[in-house]
Prior knowledge:
InterPro entries: Sll1717-like. By secondary structure, the protein is of the alpha/beta class. Among the domains are: about 35-250, Rossmann fold (3-Layer(aba) Sandwich); about 365-480, no CATH class. It has 22 helices and 11 strands. It has helices at about 20-30, 35-40, 55-70, 80-85, 95-115, 130-135, 140-155, 160-165, 170-180, 200-220, 230-235, 255-275, 285-295, 310-320, 325-340, 350-355, 355-370, 380-385, 395-405, 425-435, 460-465, 475-480, and strands at about 45-50, 75-80, 185-190, 225-230, 250, 300-305, 305-310, 390-395, 440, 450, 470-475. The protein has a 5-stranded parallel β-sheet, sandwiched between helices. The protein has a 4-stranded antiparallel β-sheet with strand order 8-11-9-10. It has a two-stranded antiparallel sheet with strand order 6-7. The chain is flat, with a radius of gyration of 26 Å. Residues about 120-130 and about 155-165 have low confidence and may be disordered.
Amino acid sequence: MATINIKDKDLFGNDAGEDESIEVLNSYYVDNPDFDDFFNPSIRLNVVSARKGMGKSAMISRMTSKLKESSDTIVIRVTGNSLLGLGDFQGHDQAYLENYWKQIICKKIILEIGNSIGFALTSDEMSMVEMAELEGMKSKNIIGGLIARIKGKLPLVDAEIRQSLPANPASLLQNYQDQHSDSSVWVLIDDIDAKYKDTPEYQARVGSFFSAIRSLAFDMKNLNIRASVRSDVWSNLRHLEDLDKWEQYVVEIYWTKKQLRDMLANRILSYVKRKSPKSKEARLKISRDYNQLFALVFGTPIRWRDDPEASIFDAIYSFSNKRPRWMGQLCRMAADQAKKNNPRNKIIDLEHIKQILEKYGKNRKDDLIKEHQHQFDELDKLIDAFRANSRTYTRTSLSALFENNFVRGRSINDIPEIDGKIYAALDDFGEFSYKIGLISKVHENGKNFTHFTDDPDLFRSNENMADAITWSVHIAYRAFLNIH
C-alpha cells in the first residue's frame, strides 16, 4: 500500500521548472507531440512561446538535460538578462541591433569556452567578434571561427587581463578546437523578454534578437539555438517585417484538458514510485488509472456545476487557467488547508479547495502584478476596479466600470502609460485586461473561452465595438475580488 503525505512539498512538483531536479522533472513530464520540433536535435532553430507558468523554462531544462547526454555537444544555457548584461543596447536601428546581438551571443560562447578550459576573459570592453568578422564566418564551423578570432586578439589584451591568463592560452584554445572540431554548440536562451514594454525601443531590441538568432543559426555550421518568449510579447511583435518568416520556427505551448489531467496524475504516480516503489499503486498507468491515482490524494468524484459525478480534476482545471504552475500551487494550498483543518487528514476535498480560493486569487493577482506591473504602474488599482462587481461584461459595461471605479475625478494626464502607450480612451483598459488574461471572451455554452493569444485583435474588432461579445473575469480571481 502506497504511503502519501499530502503536505509533502514534493507531491505536486516544483513551481519553477528550472529549479526542479531533472530526474524528478523527467519522471512526471508529459510529452506533447506539438513540441517535437523543439526537442528535435536535427532542427537548428526553434522558439517556445507561452504565458508565464505554462512550462517554458521546464522545456528549456528538459532540452538541456537531453543535450548533455551527448559527449560531442557543447551546451550553453543563459537568460536574456545575462545576455543584455554583456552589452549596452541603445537605439532603434534594426540592422545595428541585429549585428550587436550576434556579437553578444558569440561573446557568450567564447566566454563559456574560456571558462571550460581554465581561463577567464573578464573585460566587458574587449570586443570578441567585430561585425565585419562575423560576415567572414558565414558557413564556417562556429567553434573554429570564434577561436581563430579570439586567438588573434590575445596579444592585444591589456596587462590586467593578461596576468589572469595561463602561460599559453593560444595553445589551450588550439587544443580545444582540435578536440571539438565536430562538436555542435547549443545555445538555450530563457526569458529574452523580461520587463518588455510594447514601445518602439523594446520592439526593436527584442525583434532584432529574433532576427539575429535566425541569421546565426543558418549562417554558422554546428550552431543550434533554442529560446523562449512570452506569448503576449510575441503577439506584439507579429507585425514586424523582419519576423514575417518566423511562424515555422515557433512552438506555442498549449495544454489540453487531457494533457493537464495526465500531468497531475503523473506527478502523483512519480511521487508514489519514489516513496513506495514496491507498492501495487506504483504499477498504475496514467492512461487508464488516472481516477485511481486522483483518489489516492483527492476526494473524488464531486458535484461540480451540473454534474453530480464529476472528477475533482474538473474543478482543479477550471481554477488553473490551463497553467501547470497554477495547478500545482492550487493543489499544494488545498493540501495545507486540509492538514490545517485536521492534521490526520489524508485526502484533499473540494471543500478544502473552496476554503483557499480567496488566498489563491490573491496569489494570482500578485502573479499578474509581477508579470505586468512594468507595463502599467497602476495595475493593482485596475484589478481592484472589478471588486464586488459583475463577473461578465460587454464593452460598454466594461467602460462604465472603469469610468466609475478607476478614472472618475482624474484628468487624462493623470493616467500612466499603458504598455508603453499614452492613455487615450476607456477601451485601453479593457484591451489591456484582455491582454494580461484578467478577462476573456466567454462563449455561449459558458464553458469555452477565447484568450488574447487565440485572437489578439478581438477587443478592437467591430464585433466588440457593437457589444456583441461577452467578457468574463477569470474564475481564479473571483473569490478574492468578491465576485459571485
